[in-house]
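# nightly structure sweep
# worker-07 picked up a monomer target from the shared queue
# config: single-sequence mode, recycle default, output format = structure tokens
# input follows
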Amino acid sequence: MQEDPPPIRSTSVCPVCAARPRALRGGGCPDAWLCPRCGHTFVSVLPTASELEDTYEDYGYGALDDASLPKFLDRILEDRLASFDRHRSTNRILDVGFGAGGLLRVARGRGWDTFGVERSPAAVRYAKAKELGTIVLGDFLTADLERGSFDVVVMSELLEHLIEPLPFLERAAELLRPGGLLYATTPHGRGVSGRALGSSWSVLRPPEHLQLFSIRSMRRSLARAGFRRIDVYTQGLLPHELVTAVRSKLSTSSGSKGGARFEGRVTQSYRLNESLMSNTGGRALKSTANVVLRALRLGDSLRVEAER
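# output follows
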């Protein structure tokens, strides 16, 4: 069977605002582009359908068990879900790309009627076995879900994976009731790490990650999708790659071999958060750092809260 040819996006225009992009510096991903108008980062060589299917067939969820989920996440999820309570009307929450299912589990514990859509069969099997709600395997854009029926739609670390994010945002708006909330998180392409490391930042890696939003490109996309009362802010900082890059540069300039291998970004994030959340001082430090990063608009993560 002949493999389908990879679709190629033209580098002549930004997919968000249609401005002419420039090559993203950094020497990492060779097909990375940055829009000088809206700050959106994207890759020009896109994966084929078969590559995407292979990528998300398991995606690390095959060995899921309760012990594999960091316990500190429950505290974070409890706080986040508490902030959704003011949007409760239908009592229905939808998690798109729910992964390990942590949010669905905690939401059910808080009395939500939970729904989840995933393209990973391994994640779906796990969620169904744990009875995490109404679980759908397949494409979010065509999933059999009732229009205008959800209080909250969650897209956590999803948008960076998409070839075309706008249809996903439009579909979320369609499924939300008037006044319903879209909550999303995604890496921030114009945060400290994105600006310093450019295309060498490990977050920008096809076929997994294809899009890195800026605050401006995210707001523009949400407005086009029909959202109002849009709040896009930044928080979080993972210093590991920045420190490693500086050390590597210093080692190279002194004649040593650089190029230390990075640990997984998710593993780094878990370790840092677990350390900070384990004591009062760490939690206070994290809270203060997020206030500063939000004010400076330089956090490595974007947070989206947008009403239908």
